Structures are given as C-alpha cells and as structure tokens.
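Review form for a predicted model. The reviewer records the input and the model, then writes brief findings.
Reviewer: anonymous (R2)
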Amino acid sequence: MSIVSSFLVAAGLSMDNLAVTVSAGCTHGCRGTFPMIGRISLLFALAHFVMFTIGFEGGVLMHMSRSVGPWVACIILICIGVRMIRNAFGPEEKLQSTIFTSFKTQLALSVATSIDALLVGAGMALAAAPFWQTQAALVLCVFATSLCGFYLGSYLGTKFGRNVEIVGGCVLVFLGVKVLLEGTGIW
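Model under review:
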C-alpha cells in the first residue's frame, strides 16, 4: 500500500470528523482560542488513533462493533444535533454556554466520529497494510480537518448567526442517521 493510498483512506475517515467540527464551530461557545481548538482537535485525533489501533489489533472486536457501533454513533450524533438546534432557538446568553465546551460532549463526539476507524483498522490488518504509515496519515488528516472545521464553522457562525447553528445541528442528525443506515446495511 502506497503513502497516497494511506492518505486517501485517512481523508475518507476524517470526513465525518470534518462535518462534526464545522457544526461545532458554528456555535457561539466554540469560537475559542487556538489552544482550546487545538486540544479538541488532538482529542479527535487521539480517538481515531485508539480506535484504528484496536481495530487493527483485534479483528474479534469487528463483529461486536459492526452491530453496536452504528447505534452508539447514531444516538450520540442525533442527541447532540437536537440539543444544538434547540439551543439555537434559546436566548442569546444560553448560546454562550454551548454544549461543545463540555469535555463529556467532546469525548462523545470524538468516539462517535472514530467508530469507522475501528472497522477500517480491522480491514487494513486483513489487507496487510502498513500500520504506522496509515496511522500517521490518519492522525494528521483528522487533526487538520478538525482545526479547519472549527475555523470554517466559526467563520460561518459569525457571518450567518443562528441559521448556521440550526443547519449544523441538522447535519449532525443527518450524519447520525447515515451512520446507522450504513452500519445496518440499509444504505
């Protein structure tokens, strides 16, 4: 497997992450400083690293994650998306204390967006792909898409206000449904 192939796999895995971070960046409370956004981006990259490693090392987990993983990711994404939409209709002061500043929510989102990495890691192990090359590409892509997603979302949130936050919440709900439909083989 070439380095280009590793980056293509990593880019594909980081697209859900990009959608979530753009949505998070749209909220008022997520327009933070680089250290805060950097920490959250590192958390997303770490979650992908851990899930990919578990998938690569343990093909047995593949069967369990195939049945449970999509449901967990769907529930997390839909709950956060609905809360985001509901907060957009609340008073302006409530928007300042957004759910994305909570470590618990950040951790839940990082796990929800990295469940695909578990399955891909198992598949890459079966294909005898180079572990460290793919892992490095994945961590780099996830970190970069997280940073870009937060800043793009912050720009859109500042420019378009609450409407973008509502759209961001809808994106999370759609992403949750998409993960569930793909995970159950319906889509």
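Findings: The chain is about 85% helix and 0% strand.
Further findings: The CA atoms of residues 29 and 96 lie 5 Å apart.
Recommendation: see findings above.
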